[in-house]
């Protein structure tokens, strides 16, 4: 008998609900998604099974759908003057495109990020769309809002990124902004803030902004509203 029990839902559970000593993987993921757990390079080793099941199971998709549904409700509520300069900023990796096939082979973030292997995967141009984001993308376009992709992928990945985006259904965009050499050494937050400032200076109104990293959504010129997609696999500052 437990007195003063609040909830006993999935206490410290890992894969298949098996208990894990010490780390509550759900609490850790919650800390990540709320930007309380920051600056990490790998997920807790004990949470590989938990994060793997989360990402490959239905919960990741359901969590994504809550975000994109809210984004769409918000977009539909806007009374935008139709001057052709309203844009929605989409991040690319783990937002428009999913690298889950890669991360499933690399233990869901337990291994430290390996740029050589990850760039090999990117160069194949085989990343599927995150279905919830593709749906949002199409609905945003139908509302007359233009799409800007703003990604930490580098300029030398432009061609493969364009091909990959088109092959999975992202058929048009106003701009695809990739990280140029002048931003090497800058954080994602600095780089993305600077690029969004350029958009605003060019007369665009950033009606919405969606990404899987807080560095997509914090900083300056963040847009009228931001939407955080789930990503418990890696952290980019
Ligand atoms: Mg991303």
Automatic annotation (TrEMBL):
Keyword Thylakoid: no
InterPro entries: Acid_phosphat_B-like (IPR005519), Acid_phosphatase_pln (IPR010028), APS1/VSP (IPR014403), HAD-like_sf (IPR036412), HAD_sf (IPR023214)
Keywords noted in UniProt: Glycoprotein, Signal, Storage protein
Molecular functions per Gene Ontology: acid phosphatase activity; nutrient reservoir activity
Signal peptide as annotated in the record: none
SUPFAM superfamilies linked: HAD-like
Name of a matching Pfam family: Acid_phosphat_B
Superkingdom of source: Eukaryota
Keyword Glycoprotein: yes
PANTHER family, per the entry: ACID PHOSPHATASE-LIKE PROTEIN, VEGETATIVE STORAGE PROTEIN 1-RELATED
Function: May function as somatic storage protein during early seedling development.
Family: Belongs to the APS1/VSP family.
Protein name per UniProt: Acid phosphatase
């Amino acid at each position: 008998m437990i007195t003063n029990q609040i909830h006993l839902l999935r206490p410290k559970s890992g894969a298949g609900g098996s208990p894990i000593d010490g780390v509550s993987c759900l609490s850790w993921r919650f800390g990540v998604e709320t930007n309380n757990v920051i600056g990490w390079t790998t997920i807790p080793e004990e949470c590989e099974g938990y994060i793997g099941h989360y990402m490959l199971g239905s919960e990741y998709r359901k969590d994504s759908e809550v975000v994109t549904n809210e984004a769409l409700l918000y977009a539909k509520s806007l009374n935008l003057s139709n001057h052709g300069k309203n844009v929605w900023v989409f991040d690319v990796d783990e937002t428009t495109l999913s690298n889950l096939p890669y991360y499933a082979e690399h233990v869901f973030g337990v291994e430290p990020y390996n740029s050589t292997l990850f760039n090999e995967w990117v160069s194949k141009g085989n990343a599927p769309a995150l279905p919830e984001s593709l749906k949002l993308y199409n609905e945003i376009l139908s509302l007359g809002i233009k799409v800007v992709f703003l990604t930490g992928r580098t300029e030398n990945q432009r061609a493969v990124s364009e091909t990959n985006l088109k092959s999975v259904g992202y058929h048009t965009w106003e701009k695809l902004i990739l990280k140029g050499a002048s931003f090497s050494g800058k954080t994602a937050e600095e780089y993305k803030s600077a690029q969004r400032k350029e958009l605003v200076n060019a007369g665009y109104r950033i009606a919405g902004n969606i990404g899987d990293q807080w560095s997509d959504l914090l900083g300056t010129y963040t847009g009228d509203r931001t939407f955080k997609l789930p990503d418990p696999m890696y952290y980019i500052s």
